[in-house]
C-alpha cells in the first residue's frame, strides 16, 4: 500500500501562569518544563506474522457516478534473510496477483516485486506507514527514487516520489479485530511522472507495539497531464480483521486470510496438479488433474480459522483421495493424502 503525506507541526509544551497573592500584585509563576513525549518502538516482525484487512473503495472517474467495491487482502512475513524480511500481499479476488515487499531492520521498504510484471527498488528506503520508533511529536519527510524493471514488456526507468508524515496523537479505537490503543498519524505521498501526478492522503491508526495499521482512511487523486487530460479519485477505508504477531504474543484468527486462488501438486501413489479457490467462509472448490492414473477430479473441502484443512477429490459421484493438512502461513499449505484402498503421499499448494 502506498502511504501519503500530510502536514507537519509540533506539539506545544504546556506553560502555566499563576496569579500572585497579597496586596493585589500579580506575577507569572516559573514556566513548567514541557513534558518529554513518550517513545514508542515496534517489536520486530517474524516469519508467520500476518494481517488481514477488509478494504472498501469508492472510485470516481471525472464527472461519472462513483462506484464502490470491497476486497480482502492479507500481508504476511514470508521470509527472513539477515536484516531484511519479505512481506507478501495476497488478495481474495482472482483478478489481482500477489506482490512481495522487502523491508530492512528498521521497517523501511527497499523493494517491491510483482511476479511476472515489474520489480521496483527504492533509494533511499522509506517507512511504508508508521516509522519503527516515534514520539508524539515525530514528523518525517522523504524524497525517494523508484527504479523499475518490467519482465513482461522489457520497460525500464525511474520516477520520483515523496512522503511526508506526522504523528497526530494517541487514540483508542475499535475495529473488527478488537480494541486497540493506537498512534494516530497522517502521511501524504506525491508521485510526479512524465504524464501524470498522483497524490495520496492517508490518516491511519497503528498499534505501536507491532507497527500494524489497525485502520487507514485514504484519498488518492490521479491527474493526467497529457492530452486529453483526465482524473480520477479513489477513497479507501482499510480495517483490520485478523492478525498474528509473535513478538507481542497477540492474535485473532479467521478464514479470510486464506481466501483466493491456490495451485500446487501432489505426489506419491499418484501424482498430479490442482487448482482451487478458498472462499471467505473457508469453503474450497476446484479440480485436480491426475498425471499418473489419469483423469480429472472435482475438489471440495473446508479450512477453519486455525488453518486445519481437509478436502476430497471425486469423479462420477465416487470419492477418491482425502487430503489433510494444517496451514502455518496464508501463502502456502502442505499435508498428506490417503486413498481409501491404501496408499497415498504428500501435497503442496501455494497462494496465487
From TrEMBL:
<feature type="signal peptide">
    <location>
        <begin position="1"/>
        <end position="20"/>
    </location>
</feature>
<protein>
    <recommendedName>
        <fullName>Lipoprotein</fullName>
    </recommendedName>
</protein>
<keyword id="KW-0732">Signal</keyword>
Amino acid at each position: 500500500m502506498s502511504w501519503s503525506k500530510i502536514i507537519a507541526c509540533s506539539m506545544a509544551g504546556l506553560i502555566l501562569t499563576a496569579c500572585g497573592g497579597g496586596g493585589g500584585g500579580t506575577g507569572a509563576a516559573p514556566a513548567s518544563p514541557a513534558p518529554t513525549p513518550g517513545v514508542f518502538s515496534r517489536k520486530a516482525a517474524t516469519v508467520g506474522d500476518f494481517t488481514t484487512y477488509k478494504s472498501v473503495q469508492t472510485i470516481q472517474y471525472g464527472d461519472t457516478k462513483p462506484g464502490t467495491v470491497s476486497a480482502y487482502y492479507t500481508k504476511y512475513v514470508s521470509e527472513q534473510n539477515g536484516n531484511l524480511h519479505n512481506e507478501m500481499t495476497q488478495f481474495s479476488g482472482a483478478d489481482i496477483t500477489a506482490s512481495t515487499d522487502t523491508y530492512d531492520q528498521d521497517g523501511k521498504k527497499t523493494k517491491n516485486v510483482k511476479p511476472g510484471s515489474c520489480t521496483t527498488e527504492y533509494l533511499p528506503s522509506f517507512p511504508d506507514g508508521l516509522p519503527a520508533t516515534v514520539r508524539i511529536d515525530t514528523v518525517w519527510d522523504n524524497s525517494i527514487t523508484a527504479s523499475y524493471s518490467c519482465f513482461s514488456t522489457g520497460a525500464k526507468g525511474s520516477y520520483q516520489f515523496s512522503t511526508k508524515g506526522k504523528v497526530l496523537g494517541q487514540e483508542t479505537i475499535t475495529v473488527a479485530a478488537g480494541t486497540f490503543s493506537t498512534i494516530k498519524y497522517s502521511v501524504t505521498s506525491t508521485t510526479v511522472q512524465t504524464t501524470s501526478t498522483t497524490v495520496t492522503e492517508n490518516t491511519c491508526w497503528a498499534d505501536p507495539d507491532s507497527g500494524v495499521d489497525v485502520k487507514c482512511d485514504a484519498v488518492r487523486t490521479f491527474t493526467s497531464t497529457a492530452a486529453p487530460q483526465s482524473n480520477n479519485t479513489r477513497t479507501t477505508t482499510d480495517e483490520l480483521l485478523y492478525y498474528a504477531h509473535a513478538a507481542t504474543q497477540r492474535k485473532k484468527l479467521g478464514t479470510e486470510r486464506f481466501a483466493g486462488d491456490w495451485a500446487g501438486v501432489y505426489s506419491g501413489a499418484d501424482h498430479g496438479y490442482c487448482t482451487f479457490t478458498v472462499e471467505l467462509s473457508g469453503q474450497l472448490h476446484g479440480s485436480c488433474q491426475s498425471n499418473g492414473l489419469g483423469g480429472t477430479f472435482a475438489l471440495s473441502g473446508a479450512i477453519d480459522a486455525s488453518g486445519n484443512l481437509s478436502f476430497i477429490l471425486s469423479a462420477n459421484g465416487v470419492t477418491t483421495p482425502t487430503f489433510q493438512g494444517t496451514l502455518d502461513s496464508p501463502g502456502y499449505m502442505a499435508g498428506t493424502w490417503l486413498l481409501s484402498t491404501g496408499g497415498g503421499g504428500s501435497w503442496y499448494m501455494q497462494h496465487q
